[in-house]
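G., the chain you wanted modeled:
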Amino acid sequence: MKFSGLAARKAAALGASAAVLAALTAGLMASPAQAATAATASEATSGPKVSVSTPKASPRKYEGSCPVKVNFSAKIKVSVKGKTELAYRWLHGDGSKSKVKVVKLTGKGTKTVTAKQSITFKDEVKGWEAIQVLGPKKATSKKGYFSVSCEAPESKIEIDEPSAPSVSAHAWASPSSYVGECTPGDKIDFNGLIKVDRPSWVRYRWVLNGDVVDYGKVKVYDTRKVGFGFSPRESQRGWARLEVFRPDHVSSNRAYYKVWCKDPAPAPAVKVSASSLVTGTNHDGCKVSAHATVSTTGSAKVQWTWSVNGASVLKGEAYFAGAGAKTVGLPDSLLTGDATKGGNVTLTVSGPHNSESITQSYAPCKTAEPTPTATPSPTPTKPV
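Predicted structure as tokens:
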């Protein structure tokens, strides 16, 4: 016996009309009943004993997406004495039958054969499966019922989980090149710009030539500058990088720098000078006086000496906190001897690193002319 056709099975799976399925089922039920009657009659006579278990479906009641594969199995027991051939087939609820399968048995005693089959259903169906043994003795199992309920696959609801904030970083050195004294104090400043696509707390660190030298945590709403200072003590080249490690791991570009340390230039020597010397002769008493300007280019103690015709007549000093100038004077000084005939006044200034002199002549004193004496007029004489 063969399948009545795949179309009949599909008709049941697709929900064929009740009348069609009833007719198929009625026809099939009649056949197992007749087979059972024949088997009962045969058992009365001598021959091997045959028994068949009710087929089991796995899964028996299926609910879910289709197509789905349902597995069926049943056990057939046959008493064997010598060589025996077991022939059986599957009976389907839609009235069709499978091909006959033959299993050769040898030996003595009861042998058990497990019959298996798998059917794929694309649509909903309720039915049954049975085993019909055709030899060595006819026997038909009870019906094993099953059902398939196809459900439309649920639409997958995708929940967009918030992605991590997007972060970027950029770094630069200011200045990127330095030449000068390498003394304590920030000589190179490294600046970094952190940018986010939405407000976030950002953890970052600075790496200088491969070593972590600074780190921090800031709230960034859009962009924010961070930085640190570096004071090199020797000539060198290198780089710094800004690294963000939360909420995302990003690194900036390398900000390169170079430093050339040079010894400080010696400070220029402080110099003092004298200028604008003016002298004056006081003819009343024959005296000479003078005044001049004393200057310095830096912080210094300045000393000065007034001399008249080479002889020191007055000394003085003053302290300058920085570069500056001051007017100094020689008060009236009495002239005697040849000094009354004119001469020179000299101002000499001295500082920590130099001395300087300036000289100016003065006019001689004027000698006072004697006051003329009145001569009495002769008294006229009277003639005698």
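The two ends are 222 Å apart (CA to CA).

Shout if anything looks off.
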